[in-house]
Specification:
Length: 609
């Protein structure tokens, strides 16, 4: 069942103290002093410790809060406009939900939003891994820094980071009482309100930050129902965001941080439009498109723009902001979570605990045919909840030559997908009404005649008792339940062999276990593809190594070469169209493995004089 996909590339990476290829000039420019070419230091946590980006042997792009504001990055996906090798898009394929993310780094990632699909690029908020790409398009409210780590991050970040990781660090509470309000207005009746309040207490030992946002904009696209003349908007934005974070300095050696955040969105579906209409044979070899156009569409009270009763190219509007699609124009999201981070200074080492809990509910649909006909439509009502726990033990020893970190990680997630597909609705019932054993002329081909079951070729369709008709009932109701558990052990250390040379080895062991249960029902034929009570369970394990060599050429230049491995857990195909055997036999159901070395890179800026 396992299916391994490997990619290997060789390279050498060079970085300078002033910057590195992984950091957009814009991120540095935002920090530049106006009176000189000197650049302030950017601190990142790409190796799960705070350090200057200039001395970090990782291909990373960093964006501070000022950079995000300067570039008008009001949602996290927009960092892709300024990050090399990053694709970060909303409205994931087949979903219709604006907030569903598609992430690729260096061509490695995952474009499926479904609850049974894991991302190939990990998304983290304050060290907490986000298990779903649903809700991954987040508003940049109270964000302190965004880091994009390119290449496999299997050692320290681990879970499903074969392409890389997007690390979001929220704005920390201030030790001063302060309040801030931002108002933004614009076209399409846009009005955004963002406010934050810092409340220090207990002589600065207890810091609290409260931030809220109300974000509104009318849709910039519209859908037109030709049958009724009604028009609805698409692509609007209507969300409320809130976050509360408190940091308590319990003692000189112990700090506790707790946060709660939530997002509520009530919007219309993401904008879609029709680009092309073509007849594509279905899996059984029949021109499925023609079946619908000849047996179903002529009997519908819906007339195409060219006056015919068919699914054809006249449904193409020629306007990217207009569609004739009418199905399920909704895009709702409730996404909230809580985090608890505890830091102990044990003297010779430091211990950190990161506990996270998240829960989401999403409701969205897609009119894939972009017409008033019911030819290709999908809808999803998804829920997911996850609990994660990470423990890190780190230290600086051997006269500060050895900087090490080791830890354990646990992840537990449960998801439920209640949804379905409406594909060429009516074909099954029309075939039931056709003569027994016919090819339903002229639905199949011009001048078609009665088929002969004794001859080779596709099975005969038509007839009230013909079992071959069932495969053409693609109005499907589904109920998918997934349970996923993962644990890992990891360690990484940087040892300074000499003042000019360091070596960084790392390793991670990951074990994943998943279980799927549920059912999938053909509504018109009243037959199950996956019957109730079905369940399947599978587990995978993987070791992910890393090795990096770093050379400090001068105080202003760092050269490094690194080899790293990433791993993505396996899963099940939960979109079978024929029978239950497709659940776990399709390619891609096994784990993915990616090994890479970063490319040659060098950028020089003038250091501070």
């Amino acid at each position: 069942m396992k299916n391994y996909r490997k990619g290997v590339a060789a390279a050498l990476c060079a970085a300078c103290t002033a910057t590195s290829i992984g950091v957009p000039v814009s991120a540095w420019a935002a920090e530049a002093k106006s009176e000189s070419l000197a650049l302030e230091e950017i601190v990142v946590t790409a190796r799960k410790r705070e350090e200057s980006i200039q001395s970090t042997p990782v291909a990373v792009s960093a964006f501070t809060a000022d950079t995000l504001a300067m570039r008008n990055i009001d949602s996290i996906d927009k960092v892709a406009q300024f990050t090399p090798n990053l694709q970060f898009d909303g409205s994931a394929a087949l979903s219709g939900g604006r907030f569903n993310a598609t992430m690729f780094i260096r061509g490695v990632g995952q474009n499926d939003f479904a609850t049974f699909s894991d991302a190939g690029v990990g998304l983290y908020i304050d060290g907490i891994y986000m298990g779903r790409t649903i809700g991954g398009i987040m508003d940049a409210v109270d964000v302190g820094r965004v880091e994009v780590l390119r290449g496999p991050q299997g050692t320290l970040f681990g879970r499903n980071t074969i392409g890389g990781a997007v690390n979001i660090i929220t704005q920390a509470p201030s030790d001063r009482f302060q309040a801030k309000v931002d108002l933004t207005s614009g076209s399409f009746n846009r009005f955004d309100l963002k406010a934050s309040l810092d409340l220090p207490a207990a002589d600065g030992k207890l810091l609290t930050r409260v931030s809220v946002a109300e974000l509104n904009r009318d849709g910039y696209a519209k859908q037109v129902d030709l049958a009724t003349g009604n028009t609805q908007e698409r692509g609007d934005h209507n969300a409320q965001v809130a976050r509360v974070q408190s940091v308590w300095q319990v003692s000189d050696r112990f700090t506790a941080s707790v946060s709660v955040d939530g997002t509520r969105a009530r919007e219309h579906a993401a904008p879609l439009t029709l680009l092309r209409v073509a007849a594509v044979p279905n899996a059984g070899g029949y021109p499925f498109f023609n079946l619908y156009n000849n047996l179903v569409a002529p009997n519908q009270p819906i007339v195409a723009p060219n006056g015919s009763r068919q699914m054809n190219s006249s449904w193409i509007t020629g306007d990217p902001y207009k569609t004739y699609g009418t199905f399920y124009n909704i895009n709702n999201l409730d996404n909230w979570g809580a985090g608890l981070t505890l830091d102990w200074n044990l003297g010779a080492a430091k211990l950190k605990s990161i506990t996270g809990y998240r829960k989401l509910r999403a409701d969205f649909g897609r009119d894939g045919d972009n017409s008033s006909l019911t030819f290709r439509e999908t809808f999803n009502n998804d829920t997911a909840k996850q609990l994660s726990q990470e423990l890190q033990l780190s230290g600086l020893n051997l006269n500060d030559r050895l900087n090490w970190l080791a830890g354990v990680y646990y992840f537990d997630e449960d998801t439920v997908d209640d949804g379905g597909a409406r594909l060429a609705v009516g074909v099954f019932n029309a075939l039931q009404a056709q003569p027994t054993g016919s090819w339903s002329p002229p639905a199949i081909a011009p001048n078609a005649t009665l088929c002969n079951p004794a001859l080779p070729g596709p099975p005969c369709l038509g007839g009230a008792t013909n079992p071959q008709n069932v495969a053409n009932d693609l109005q499907i109701q589904l109920h998918n339940v997934n349970s996923s558990k993962s644990y890992a052990f990891f360690a990484q250390a940087s040892y300074k062999v000499a003042d000019w040379f360091s070596v960084t080895p790392g390793i991670r062991y990951t074990h994943d276990q998943k279980e799927f249960s549920g059912f999938q029902l053909r509504l018109n034929a009243n037959q199950y593809i996956v019957p109730p009570g079905f369940s399947i369970e599978q587990s995978w394990s993987q070791i992910s190594p890393k090795l990096s060599l770093e050379f400090t050429v001068t105080d202003d230049a760092l050269l490094y070469v690194s080899a790293s491995s990433g791993y993505k857990s396996g899963g099940f195909n939960e979109r079978p169209l024929r029978n239950i055997g497709e659940v776990n036999t399709v390619p891609g159901a096994g784990p993915e493995l990616n090994l890479t070395l970063p490319p040659l890179a060098a950028i020089f800026l003038i250091p501070e004089s």
